[in-house]
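Incident log, support desk, overnight shift.

02:14 A customer reports that sequence design results differ from what the structure should imply. Their input is reproduced verbatim below. On-call engineer (initials T.W.) acknowledged and began investigating.
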């Protein structure tokens, strides 16, 4: 081994080590930013080392360097622009688009490797077959998920007669084409069938999944992206790609399991689809047969200002209104009066894993005030006010009894607090498409308004109240 090869391998080893350390740092909100920066720096070092290898080998033609430079500039520019301009409410669909880009890029590597090394009836390698299969499924499935989150594709489960049969045919086509390619009995035709069937399966897998399962779907597709990248690494013989892809695949799989457990749903049931209709059916009347009690800003201010303990339960409505800063301002005002304020964050609140944590961190909410569901529920009976801001299904007591769309789903026990204040635009359904029994609880007061406006009005009322 030459000195040059040794240095490059040591750089790749350092890059892989930094990826592992970065992932470990992301385990805590306190160190997540450092972990992200460390991983980004490691990726930059890996790309630079690969470029040095290409220059040293002198096998890349000038036009290819121009294409590489243009692609790097375009991708970096687009990423920087999106990172700076995307609204927090659009972060889930942005993550889905990133998953699509990663899966599609990995699949293209498999396509290139196949056309470069396989001809006639020579067999394709297992990494190449898996790379194209998983990458294509991730690409099309992530685009459908992004469309559902953006509202371009209906968020409710898309089912039609023969959908299950079509999915089964696509699975059989992928399996048959894969076997033909691996045994050397299939050429370009089998490869085309594999790619097209995988693209179709990505659509048929995600389309029947409802909006309520989107956090789990995003995690699953992220795991697919990592696995596809790892397979691309095996195809290219690149250790950095293998390590990075394996880390993303493994962590995404673990997160998918955690998200599924948080909803008390099996991954098989989620992929089978059918849960969640989207928040697209607002109804102004009371939920079910109960009576709804409306609050004014002054009523809410009195309850909050004279409470000893307030637990804030954020949901997607907070993100949609971009009201995290107003919420933090109100919390600080209450704390100045000696009120103990904490935040109960449900694992699947919002539209992607960690959505509420990122939102609150952006507003400067101290990390120690963020409580997980288990700890928050243990303290709920001693809580004076459960302050629900834009959350719906994750606080629905209907989950505790059988026969509903959310039965068995762990929830934040807001109804066990001494009183409840709910900020919501209307009595519209959440993703599960059912009435929320919390809204008709005698201890619950509803404040019907956009979260930003409601929090501003309540904050102003608290300021007047305390003089």
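02:41 Re-run completed on a clean worker. Output:
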């Amino acid at each position: 081994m030459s000195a040059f090869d040794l240095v490059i391998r040591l750089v790749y080893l350092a890059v892989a080590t930094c990826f592992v350390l970065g992932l470990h740092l992301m385990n805590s909100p306190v160190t997540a930013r450092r972990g992200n920066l460390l991983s980004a720096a490691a990726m930059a070092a890996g790309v630079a080392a690969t470029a040095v290898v290409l220059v040293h080998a002198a096998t890349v033609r000038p036009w290819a360097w121009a294409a590489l430079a243009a692609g790097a500039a375009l991708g970096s520019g687009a990423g920087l622009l999106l990172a700076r301009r995307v609204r927090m409410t659009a972060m889930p669909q942005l993550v889905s688009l990133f998953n699509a880009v990663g899966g599609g890029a990995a699949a293209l590597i498999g396509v290139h490797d196949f056309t470069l090394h396989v001809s006639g009836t020579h067999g394709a390698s297992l990494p190449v077959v898996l790379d194209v299969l998983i990458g294509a499924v991730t690409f099309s499935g992530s685009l459908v998920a992004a469309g559902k989150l953006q509202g371009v594709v209906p968020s409710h489960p898309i089912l039609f007669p023969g959908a299950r049969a079509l999915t089964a045919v696509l699975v059989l086509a992928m399996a048959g084409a894969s076997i033909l390619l691996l045994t050397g009995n299939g050429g370009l035709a089998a490869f085309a069938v594999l790619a097209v069937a995988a693209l179709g399966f990505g659509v048929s897998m995600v389309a029947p999944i409802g909006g309520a399962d989107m956090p789990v779907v995003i995690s699953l597709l992220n795991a697919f992206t990592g696995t596809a990248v790892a397979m691309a690494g095996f195809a290219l013989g690149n250790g950095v790609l293998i390590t990075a892809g394996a880390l993303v695949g493994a962590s995404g799989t673990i997160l998918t399991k955690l998200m599924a457990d948080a909803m008390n749903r099996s991954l098989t049931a989620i992929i089978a689809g059918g849960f969640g209709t989207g928040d697209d059916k607002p109804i102004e009347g009371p939920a079910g047969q109960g009576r709804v009690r409306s609050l004014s800003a002054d009523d809410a201010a009195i309850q909050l200002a004279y409470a000893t303990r307030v637990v804030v339960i954020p949901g997607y409505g907070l993100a949609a209104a971009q009201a995290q800063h107003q919420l933090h301002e109100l919390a600080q005002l209450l704390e100045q009066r000696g009120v103990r304020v904490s935040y109960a964050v449900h694992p699947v609140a919002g539209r992607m894993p960690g959505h509420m944590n990122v939102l609150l961190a952006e507003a400067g909410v101290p990390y120690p005030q963020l409580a997980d569901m288990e700890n928050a529920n243990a303290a709920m009976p001693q809580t004076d006010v459960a302050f629900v801001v834009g959350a719906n299904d994750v606080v629905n007591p209907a989950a505790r009894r059988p026969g509903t769309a959310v039965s068995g789903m762990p929830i934040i026990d807001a109804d066990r607090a001494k009183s409840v204040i709910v900020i919501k635009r209307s009595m519209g359904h959440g993703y599960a498409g059912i009435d929320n029994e919390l809204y008709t609880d005698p201890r619950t007061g509803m404040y019907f308004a956009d979260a930003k406006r409601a929090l501003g009005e309540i904050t102003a009322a608290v300021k007047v109240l305390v003089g």
